[in-house]
Design brief:
mainly alpha, 3-stranded mixed beta sheet, two-stranded antiparallel sheet, 5 strands, 59% helix, globular
Length: 264
């Protein structure tokens, strides 16, 4: 009866079970949304806020995020005229990108198109191409409906346990959490590939050259490790570099010119 609100939708060649009304977070990063602009208003009254130079950097990063997001949004609408159908959770078919106060690198997305970027990115002063790659990956998760898929998997696990384990609610909660974690990890690699494929298309549609994005990823290789997010980001970087090499080899084969070096 709980599953009555779920539906199976295709993502590429892979069917998904999604729960239509839900809009939960794609990852465990909390959505305590604070943009750079809002932060500046708070800091005018808080002596514990960052120094002026840090506030200027935060404002600069917020403007950069706004500019890059605008380009990707236009690319998404051009690439997916049916965006409202593909991602019905989006509000007015728009992505809403926020900056979250957090000292570790990370990003997260929800089914309603809200994308959180950790403020730690500002200190690294990323190039537009690199920032676009980070945001496009999260847009890819939203368009592929991964947040809804993960939520539906959690609900399905809880529903089954309610039937087969009618005992302690504490026991069911513990088992449900473990089962949901296993299910999420088993889908994670596939979801990364799906989101990356969409992200590459979004970058191209927004006017970003994959070669420029690949060059910016060299800098990202020296970023501090942020656990699970860093692992997935490195996988996405490898996927983009592999796609760039395939494209260059295809062009070389068609023109008779030698392909460029690996990722150069």
């Amino acid at each position: 009866m709980v599953m009555a609100g779920c539906a199976t939708v295709p993502t590429g060649d892979r069917p998904q079970v999604v729960d239509m009304p839900l809009a939960s977070a794609h990852s465990e990063i909390a959505f305590t949304m604070t943009t750079g602009y809002r932060q500046s208003l708070v800091c005018s009254k808080e002596p514990s806020c960052p120094e002026q130079s840090d506030k200027v950097a935060a404002m600069r990063f917020a403007r950069q995020v706004e500019r890059v997001t605008g380009a990707l949004q236009k690319g998404a609408r051009h690439l997916y005229p049916d965006l409202a159908r593909r991602a019905p959770g989006l509000v007015d078919s728009r992505f809403d990108v926020f900056i979250v106060e957090n000292d570790e690198l990370g990003s997260a997305s929800s089914a309603n198109g809200r994308i959180a970027l950790n403020g730690a990115f500002a200190a690294l002063r990323p190039y537009d191409e690199l920032l676009a790659f980070v945001i496009a990956r999260e847009m890819g998760h939203v368009i592929a409906r991964h947040p809804e898929e993960n939520s539906a998997a959690s609900i399905a696990t809880s529903a089954i346990l309610s039937v087969v384990i009618p005992g302690s609610s504490l026991l069911k909660t513990a088992i449900s959490a473990t089962g949901s974690e296993i299910a999420a990890r088993s889908k994670e690699e596939v979801q990364v590939l799906e989101a990356d494929a969409i992200a590459l298309s979004l970058l191209k549609a927004a006017g970003f050259r994959l070669r420029d994005v690949a060059l910016s990823l060299r800098i990202a290789s020296a970023w501090p490790d942020a656990g699970r997010w860093s692992k997935n980001f490195r996988e996405s970087s490898d996927n983009l570099l592999a796609e760039l090499r395939r494209t260059e080899f295809a062009v070389a084969a068609a023109t008779g010119e030698p392909a460029a070096g690996r990722g150069n």
